[in-house]
Design goal:
Length: about 210
């Protein structure tokens, strides 16, 4: 949350500075054209493409708040996507652990734990009439099912954050389309999940005392 707030403040500050510089040029087309060329790297730090005077007016005069809103949505989308990536790694590990549990050879501690669980199950309950060997097999199955339950929970979490990513990604796309601005990654035909973090880190570096 703090990073998103910091990112929004940083973008607002950078847009305000560029907006002031742009307005100071007045209607001098020659100066405006040169300013756009000179500030290409600044636009890149924001992740937007400014090719002409109309683009500059859109970003720095008419739709500044919408640009901030679009980047806020994009940052949330990227944050959700990073969580999806992290949780998906945990999901794969959990699924593999559940599969391995079906065949793994138990060490002394696990054998002892399973033995007493199976032994207790033979004292009362639905397994009381089963042999110890059968109860041990059922105990292994319960272990597998417990791990599968953990994996299922992670899968639901991954799906939830994926939906969050999709929601904010679509929101950002719609805002940029409405503004009439193109993001620089789309001009380059690529964007990585680290782009939002890179913009934020650049901002924090720029605004640090």
């Amino acid at each position: 949350h703090e990073r998103l707030v910091g990112s929004e403040m940083c973008i607002r500050d950078r847009l305000r500075r560029l907006s002031e510089n742009w307005r100071d040029l007045g209607d001098n087309i020659k100066a405006q054209t040169q300013w756009i060329k000179d500030n290409e790297k600044e636009f890149g730090k924001l992740g937007i493409t400014i090719d002409n005077i109309n683009d500059a007016n859109n970003a720095f005069v008419e739709n500044t708040e919408s640009v901030v809103a679009a980047y806020k949505a994009r940052a949330k989308a990227e944050a959700a996507l990073n969580i999806v990536s992290q949780q998906y790694q945990k999901l794969l590990a959990a699924e593999n652990k559940a599969e391995a549990e079906k065949v793994r050879e138990y060490g002394f501690f696990d054998k002892t734990m399973n033995y007493f669980k199976a032994l207790w199950g033979g004292i009362s309950g639905p397994d009381s009439d089963l042999s110890l060997e059968t109860r041990l097999k059922k105990q292994r199955q319960r272990n597998v099912e417990s791990l599968q339950k953990d994996a299922k929970s992670l899968e639901q979490e991954v799906e939830s954050y994926f939906n969050v990513w999709k929601f904010y990604e679509d929101q950002a796309d719609a805002l940029f389309k409405e503004i009439g601005l193109e993001e620089s990654h789309k001009k380059d035909k690529k964007r990585t999940p680290r782009d939002a973090d890179d913009r934020l880190n650049t901002c924090l570096l720029y605004t640090s005392p």
